Amino acid sequence: MNKPIMAKATAVWLVDNTTLSFKQIAEFCGLHELEVQGIADGDVAAGVKGFDPVQNNQLEQSEIDKAEADPLHRLKLKFNLAAVGEEKRRGPRYTPLSKRQDRPASILWLVKFHPELADSQIAKLVGTTKPTIQSIRDRSHWNIQNIQPIDPVALGLCRQSELDAAVQKAAAKKAREGAVMTDDERRRLVSTEQSLEMGDEPKVPSSISGLETFTLSNSGEELKEDERDVADADSFFNLPNDADDEDEDDRD
Fold first, then answer.
1. Is residue 9 within 8 Å of 17, Cβ to Cβ?
2. Which domain holds residue 131?
3. Is position 171 within any domain?
4. pLDDT tens digits for range 69-124
5. Buried b / exposed e across 43-60, counting CB within 10 Å, b at 16+?
6. Theoretical Cys-Cys bridge with 24: which of 20, 102, 115, 155, CB 3.0 to 4.6 Å?
7. Distance between CA atoms of 66 and 69, rounded to whole angstroms?
8. Within a domain: 230
9. Could you tell me the pTM of the whole model?
10. Would residue 218 count as lying in a domain?
11. Do 159 and 112 share a domain, yes or no?
12. Is residue 194 classed exposed, middle or buried when 0-12, 13-18 and 19+ CB atoms within 10 A define those classes?
């Protein structure tokens, strides 16, 4: 295990019973240094009873003595044979009760935007069962009319790195099977890191590329003075003399 059981209660005990620095306690308990400082100030973990890591076989007293004498010394969790292999999660992911109602929405999102994912991958990502996934795939779920697709990462049901890993695994499987993917499917198989590294797409469609530099000027050169069609303003208002004589004849 990387951190002791009842980490916050252990931090409370270490703050109250040792002279360890906040950083040493935070690193040992897997907390933030400011959180440990909040415990010392009474703003965090109010009412939490301290949990003695020495008495509960998680830390040696000699380790505490070394750390108190050397602020740079890191506390080492006592080896517990019974805890070997406990970090690896077995079975489906546990989903808190407050988020279980969001699972159908996340399943619908995965089925809609990542149809290449297998049911086993979706079950592992959001902590559900294959019958539930199948009922959403074939739209036989009892509440399918009211379910709106929502990203499971936004709902806190899985991490973005886990979703990207599952998508990449699905992409590798499709590549091995030689399946032909559409452009839309290929875009969905790109992870977040890869999409952020891509350059900006051109704003001008390729079908009209080059028109943005089109100009009506003659190679950028201005027309010469004698080539311009310059009209005299008086010519628009003064009629020729012949026209005046014709008007007088008409009146006669």
1. no
2. 92-197
3. yes
4. 998 999 888 876 555 554 555 555 666 666 778 899 999 999 999 988 999 999 98
5. ebbeeeebbebeeeebbe
6. 20
7. 5
8. no
9. 0.41
10. no
11. yes
12. exposed
